[in-house]
Amino acid sequence: MSVNTSSTAEAVALIADDMREVDRLIAKRLSSDVPLVGQVAQYIISAGGKRLRPALLLLMCGALGQRSPERFTLAAVVEFIHTATLLHDDVVDDSTLRRGRATANEAFGNPASVLVGDFLYSRAFQMMVEVGDMRIMQTLAEATNVIAEGEVMQLVNMHDASLDEAGYLRVIRSKTAKLFEASARIAAILAGSTPEIERACADYGQALGTAFQVIDDVLDYDGAPEEMGKNLGDDLREGKCTLPLIAAMRRGTPAQRDTIRVAIENGAVDNIDEIIAIVRETGALEITREAAAAEAQRAIEAISQLSPNNNTKALLQLAAQLLERRS
């Protein structure tokens, strides 16, 4: 099936009304008798972002002909779960910048960020219980647990320059791709799809989420800070051994490998320009983009199993567009 790589704006336009309803529901369910809860939650959610996970759920529902109002609740649920992980991530990583402005922990402090993250997790579980579908609850509960395991795996891998590609992929498939996978699977469950179609939807979500994170890791060494909304080299400062660095160490000279290894082990960014040059000179960015392309192609093959309509076309575009992502 051929893919039109026009802007993802076309895909999002298909669900613009649905997304407005999700935003309305998010605003409503952020309410709390404790003012600080609403302030911190609203701060991070109002920062914007691509809203890819709820958009994926809504697009997949459209592709499967599922129009029940529960889709709005579940789209808000996955956004709450995602936002909770961001609040906790920024505390763990000691991040100061996200989406071009101060992180919530920078603005409100670590304790408030952790506790409001907990509030968002618990609110998400309240909302999924309201939907009352045991398989959906099982899917989201499993996803949340796997994400937490992925966070711990990433913590254990910090400053470990011996991490290989398999270990790297294991982390991002747990930490990032799992919620994409769950979002797509939930749509299939809501639609009463066959096991084969449900599997195809889940495969699409996992592949899309993996490609998204791999490209995100490329941009840490090949992006513009003003477009990315974070500082160049943040991953290295946190001691994260991502695929661009793994590939550069595999292809670099012994001296280049030592330079990267020492930087990972010490979380040192004082020679970030040299490391960026090594990553580029060794062809590591091309290798990493090829890995993302393989995942995007896997997503395209999975979604091609669904009956063609405007939404499946949009999902194809989403996968293809990832390869042109620059922010």
UniProtKB/TrEMBL annotation:
Named cofactor requirement(s): Mg(2+)
Q: Which UniProt keywords apply?
A: Magnesium, Metal-binding, Transferase
Q: CDD domains per the record?
A: Trans_IPPS_HT
Q: Which PANTHER family match?
A: ALL TRANS-POLYPRENYL-DIPHOSPHATE SYNTHASE PDSS1 (PTHR12001:SF69), GERANYLGERANYL PYROPHOSPHATE SYNTHASE (PTHR12001)
What family is this? Belongs to the FPP/GGPP synthase family.
Name the UniProt record assigns to this protein: Octaprenyl diphosphate synthase
Q: Which organism is it from?
A: Pseudorhodoferax aquiterrae
